[in-house]
Design a protein that fits this description.
With about 140 residues, the protein is α+β, with helices and mostly antiparallel strands. Helices cover about 15% and strands about 20% of the residues.
Length: about 140
């Protein structure tokens, strides 16, 4: 049975060689990219209507300017949001480390690789409900 959030997802116009992405959902200072297609970490791995997926790929972004400045990007992980219920399902997809991933003191900055793959739609709905509740 589709989760309520799936009815809110709308695909952006696509390019001939790529499926259209679903538009992001915003919740205060957090933004979610929830995706499904033949090129995303989802089940089934095909380009379908949002209501046809049992799991989808999710990325969390911050819209908070201080967050973005501190981390040098807008990517977030569920563990960055106090009380977030999804951290245990998240497996970061790591990319190679480059010189620009380090700040002037040699500390590693966030590398923007936190994509959750094959996240069950029930868990995505739980995340959305949680984020929505933060803004009430």
């Amino acid at each position: 049975m589709p989760m309520p959030f799936q009815y809110d997802l709308e695909r952006k116009p696509s390019l001939p060689y790529r499926p259209g992405f679903f538009k992001e959902l915003e919740f205060g200072k957090w933004k979610l990219s929830i995706q499904g297609s033949d090129s995303h970490y989802c089940e089934p791995r095909a380009t379908l209507r949002a209501t046809e997926y049992t799991s989808m790929e999710v990325a969390i972004f911050s819209t908070d300017e201080e967050w973005i400045k501190f981390h040098n990007n807008d990517w977030a992980h569920p563990e960055d949001i106090p009380g977030c219920p999804l951290g245990h399902l998240w497996e970061p997809r790591n990319r190679p480390v480059h010189d620009e991933d380090f700040n002037e003191t040699g500390e590693m900055k966030r590398n923007g690789s936190f994509v959750g793959g094959w996240i069950p739609v029930e868990a995505i709905q739980e995340l959305i409900d949680f984020l929505w509740g933060l803004n009430q």
